[in-house]
Amino acid sequence: MFHVENYRGNKNENYELVKKQLKALIEDEPNQIANLSNASALLNLFLDRINWVGFYLMEENELVLGPFQGLPACVRIPVGKGVCGTAVAKKETLLVEDVHQFPGHIACDAASQSEVVVPLIKNGEILGVLDIDSPEKSRFDEVDKQKLEEFVEVLVQYL
Fold it and tell me: How far is Cα 154 from Cα 131, in angstroms, rounded to an integer?
């Protein structure tokens, strides 16, 4: 059973707690969809000032919508298109302070103003991306980027 924790520490301490919670939620579950679902729910609970958090999974050279929390979303994103597709093409995390300034941004939710996308890479293969949107410009910083990359490192061990 999951118990809601109050995140009372500093940003780094809170991210460490959420990584521990992730591991406890998924370490005994082999089902990828279940683990991604719990990961998105956990981040939705943990992160404030966001309007969408979830996963897109690689399928036949494009990203396909996976488990998420938020409004209905775009179902398919070509590699190299939008923030998610560009993160896959570059194989790197993208931190976008203003999505309206990102060339080719795909607007699934008109309220989104900033975004962070972390590729899910296991054994050199891209499995998909973690995508998080916020209705605030510049919501995410370098600490979020680093700690979300660490969160994904824990997650991909169980995918």
Answer: 16
- Alpha carbons 69 and 26: distance in angstroms, whole number: 18
Residues 90, 87, 152, CA angle at the centre, nearest 5°?
115
Q: What is the C-alpha separation between 110 and 133, in angstroms, rounded? A: 11
CA distance 36 to 64: 14
DSSP per-residue letters across the chain: --------S-HHHHHHHHHHHHHHHHTT---HHHHHHHHHHHHHHH-SS-SEEEEEEEETTEEEEEEEEES---SEEETTSHHHHHHHHHTS-EEES-GGGSTT---SSTT--EEEEEEEEETTEEEEEEEEEESSTT---HHHHHHHHHHHHHHHTT-
Residue 78 token pair: 């070509």
Q: Each residue of 37-96: pLDDT tens digit?
A: 999 999 999 999 999 999 999 999 999 999 999 999 999 999 999 999 999 999 999 999
Contact 119, 148 (CB under 8 A): no
Q: Are 114 and 97 in contact (CB under 8 A)?
A: yes
Contact, 131 vs 97, CB < 8 A?
A: no
